[in-house]
């Protein structure tokens, strides 16, 4: 007789109730329906296929793009007492044969494979054999946005996964992703043959993440201030656009006393694996990385994600910041950006081999990302509206909500800037245009005879920094375009006409002074979730978790998440029965670790 999903949730995983759409999604898969799930990182996507895998007869096949993600999931499931394994190129031939024998003997319930491995004729033959012998419970396609060329992380091998619908039409498939706009969702449905699938869009909000975005001035010093002020002793990720910047930043952070490691595709596979292992297994590690790092990382206690360069799209930003606070505890998404970031990304896009339609789409995404940086409204409103097109209330947990930016009527300044672009022939970049507006005395202006223009010197009383802000905001609003084929020259968009004619008022953001920024930062400090009086017990619980994790050769969060330790700290259970009531402690973990943590709590009670 099949177990009920809720019973499995409680007995195996140690949670009392499903969250959000989990129950409906699990019911859909258990009933044999194809299912498409969009759920934010940390929302509990894994349970949406792990529980049906335990409910349904047969072996569940989980398709995951990265070995690190498979390792995490398999290690976590085994700690829950679930028979899970993975097949990938990192295993020896002997280990692979052993797993295949376990599969044929029906000793496994979940098997994780990469799409490349799944598509091998030998693997498909193995699955056909398993289907006949034991049955296949389901196929789960994780990170399903990888199937879309419009998505931010396209993987060509995902295109071939439609073979599952062709060769195994009776086996239900569930595709899952945290990030997909309407076009990407359509691609997932079409390319994975999920035309009649049940679709669940479980929201995109991550309310525990505080969004902080500021103008790039001295990026390293800004990062250092953020880390020392808010994130001392915490694990986090710092994203950079280039490999050189990754290594330089990691080295500099080490000089400042932080445990910082580098990760990018140019490092050897051995060093990447070593650094990733340290990030997952050790406490208080900062990983400085390109976007090559992160999709396969299941670490729940990442307390911050910082960007030293602007991401190329809101999808990429959401995916990357979503790696913070997967345990539901407070986390921060911090970023510095500048107009040069947008120009560099647009130049990279112009040099790419994508077709013109794809380049237009990516260009629009980049402009939308710059708009998020420049917006004066709630950042979460902008993010959520981008994905679901609905209106949301102010979040109260982003910098624009906590410290609302000041605005001013910038119509006159905008008209001067737009007129300067027009009268100089729409062929010059920001620096030159500011020189013209401020009446600079230089040879280049004289060469072009632009000192004779009516716009020459009309902005001499406006500081360079403010002019830079004006041009940046005009670009972010799409009134001005950057022409990279003409070395970053600015051109007017049709939407600039009403502003030039005085038919439209333009409210612009006021850049804060250094003193104002310091005051705002002080007010926006993270609230640490551990009271000072509880700190010794908290550290003792973490030390016990570390000891057990080392014994089992797994990351500490595989033993228990921070949220589970926090519940122990707050409730201080005195018996195994009380320990069993804490969220995240299933029957197997209770039997394995319950008494060890009770002893830690008893020792502090008696002290």
TrEMBL record:
**Which key words are in the record?**
ATP-binding, DNA damage, DNA recombination, DNA repair, DNA-binding, Helicase, Hydrolase, Isomerase, Metal-binding, Nucleotide-binding, Zinc
Q: Where, by residue number, does the polypeptide cross the bilayer? A: none
> Would you tell me the protein name for this molecule?
DNA helicase RecQ
Q: Which GO terms describe its biological process?
A: DNA recombination; DNA repair; DNA replication; SOS response
Indicate the segments forming the HRDC domain, all copies. 531-607
Q: Which NCBIfam families match?
A: recQ, recQ_fam
| Boundaries of every Helicase ATP-binding domain copy | 26-198
Q: Which GO terms describe its molecular function?
A: 3'-5' DNA helicase activity; ATP binding; DNA binding; four-way junction helicase activity; hydrolase activity; metal ion binding
PROSITE patterns found in the cross-reference section: HELICASE_ATP_BIND_1, HELICASE_CTER, HRDC
Organism's domain of life? Bacteria
Matching entries from CDD domains are given as: DEXHc_RecQ, SF2_C_RecQ
Species source reads: Permianibacter aggregans
Q: Which SMART domains match?
A: DEXDc (SM00487), HELICc (SM00490), HRDC (SM00341), RQC (SM00956)
| Enzymatic reactions | Couples ATP hydrolysis with the unwinding of duplex DNA by translocating in the 3'-5' direction
Gene Ontology CC terms: bacterial nucleoid; cytoplasm; replisome
Q: Name one Pfam family in it.
A: RecQ_Zn_bind
- The EC number of this protein is 5.6.2.4
User: Boundaries of each Helicase C-terminal domain copy?
Assistant: 219-369
Question: What InterPro entries has UniProt attached to this entry?
Answer: DEAD/DEAH_box_helicase_dom, DNA_helicase_ATP-dep_RecQ, DNA_helicase_ATP-dep_RecQ_bac, Helicase_ATP-bd, Helicase_C-like, HRDC-like_sf, HRDC_dom, HRDC_dom_sf
**Co-factor(s):** Mg(2+); Zn(2+)
Family label: Belongs to the helicase family. RecQ subfamily.
Q: What class of enzyme is it?
A: isomerase
